[in-house]
Amino acid sequence: MGTTQLESVPEPKYWHLKTVLSDALDSEFAVGEILPNERELAARFGVARATLRQALEQLELEGRLQRRRGVGTTVAPPRVGVSVGDPGHSWPGTGDAADAWQPVDSHQAVPPAAVARLLDAGPDEETHVVRRTRMSHGQPLAAELLYIPAGSVPGLSAIDAPGGPARARTVLRELCRLELEGQDQAVELGSARADDAKELDRLPGSPVLIVTTRYYAQGRTAAVAVATYRADTCRLTFGDTGGGVQLLAG
Amino acid sequence: MGTTQLESVPEPKYWHLKTVLSDALDSEFAVGEILPNERELAARFGVARATLRQALEQLELEGRLQRRRGVGTTVAPPRVGVSVGDPGHSWPGTGDAADAWQPVDSHQAVPPAAVARLLDAGPDEETHVVRRTRMSHGQPLAAELLYIPAGSVPGLSAIDAPGGPARARTVLRELCRLELEGQDQAVELGSARADDAKELDRLPGSPVLIVTTRYYAQGRTAAVAVATYRADTCRLTFGDTGGGVQLLAG
DNA sequence: AAGTGGTCTAGACCACAAG
DNA sequence: TTGTGGTCTAGACCACTTT
Lengths: 250, 250
Description:
Two copies of one chain form a homodimer. In chain A, a hairpin with a 2-residue loop joins strand 5 and strand 6 (139-149). The first copy, chain A, has helices at 13-28, 38-45, 49-61, 113-118, 165-175, 194-200, and strands at residues 65-68, 72-75, 80-83, 101-109, 127-136, 139-149, 180-191, 207-217, 220-230, 234-239, 245-247. Chain A contains six helices and eleven strands. Chain A is 24% helix and 34% strand. By secondary structure, chain A is an alpha+beta fold. In chain A, helix 1 packs across helix 3 and helix 2 crosses helix 3 (49-61). Chain A folds into two domains: 13-75, Arc Repressor Mutant, subunit A, CATH 1.10.10.10; 80-249, 3-Layer(aba) Sandwich (Chorismate lyase). The model of chain A is unreliable at 1-7 and 241-250 (pLDDT under 50). Chain A binds chain B through residues 15, 18, 58, 61-63, 79, 81, 85, 117-118, 182-191, 204-205, 207, 209, 231-232, 234-241, 249-250, and chain B through 15, 18, 58, 61-63, 79, 81, 85, 117-118, 182-191, 204-205, 207, 209, 231-232, 234-241, 249-250. Strand 7 (180-191) of chain A pairs antiparallel with strand 10 of chain B, so a sheet runs across the interface. Chain B binds a DNA duplex through helix 3.
């Protein structure tokens, strides 16, 4: 049971390496501490750099490490608990300060097919698109695109507001006039698109948790939000105990 | 804005490859269809196999492809929407048939430190551990470990039930006698442990979505579930419209 | 300029599934 | 036995950050 398996099924090197490194992180390193560089670690363990990297990649995926080009590999802090569930069913932008969403911009565009499907919209129907960013302790946690069909915000036929945050706020304010009847959400794994990656201070392709929220009002889908959370630093919480960003909601 | 960037920041090869393959999947391949093998694809695109694999890995991460050793690479079906939120706040095992959780086994053990913390238990306190599997269409979706302090199920001091599913069911039945007062959940990215990987029919280290559920009863944490969902095939839904496994809850 | 992680190559061998 | 994806090597060069 508790034995060591005696290599009857030989463990891949990178898997064993990962275990060794993981234990070392627990016992010998402090959060924020910088590890020896990849070439040295590989030499020290007697493996090729690619193999060492395979282990580091998994540890980064699990939120144990953080790697930055030109800088080095550091021990990551525990993941931040981020409230996502919002049991109060409120519109975006109406939360308290802990919500920490910052409007960035807004424009009009045809949504991607998957979003159009959720909106029951035609494939070529334009929507307002509001970009927001969620921050915590100066670090970006998530980048979001909010898709709002023109029909949901009838007060916005005349677009006087300039670009940038001001316009985004105008659209959100208009959206809040509707009575929200419900929402549902889905979470899945994805990889960061180039634009989101930039917003999140990560490389394109980094693993992200994609949260799709559908807002219901007036008996139909009034808006759809697609939020991209950094998978390395975030733990998404859906709780009765709701509310804002938590550090170690243990 | 909408321009093509003219390579001022040269795109990595694997990133471009991923785009090309992704478009090809949309237009030229049907779900379940098998792709040419990696050596041939690499030759066809004029890149090393490792580079081609980097592109395939990302597409698999996004749920577009499925790769099986000894078999080949196939086009994956759309992700399955799996209801996780459970707005009714019911105990595990009390859902309808669509719930599709199957008890596997039960034993007693000291939970990992992270779980003990959630249970407000001492680091060496034993709990009942119930293993369950969630299936859909013959495919395993998730593997779960349910940790139940002995104090939550006082009726179980005498353990007469044999091992296996029968014993697991006995523990769950006993747990249901408590009045559930609430629950909260968290979702984060992880990599499959060896035991979960086996249960999920994946290789160890595959990306998984880890759902941690805390059940409240009698004014304290009465149980903690740690469920490991296949990230490649699952989209976790937290909805007002709740209920069971959905295929494309679009 | 030096040092870091990120990308890429061209091989090799292994574990697994299917004929 | 054959063919597949999975692991591993020993290099090379590039992009980025810091000094």
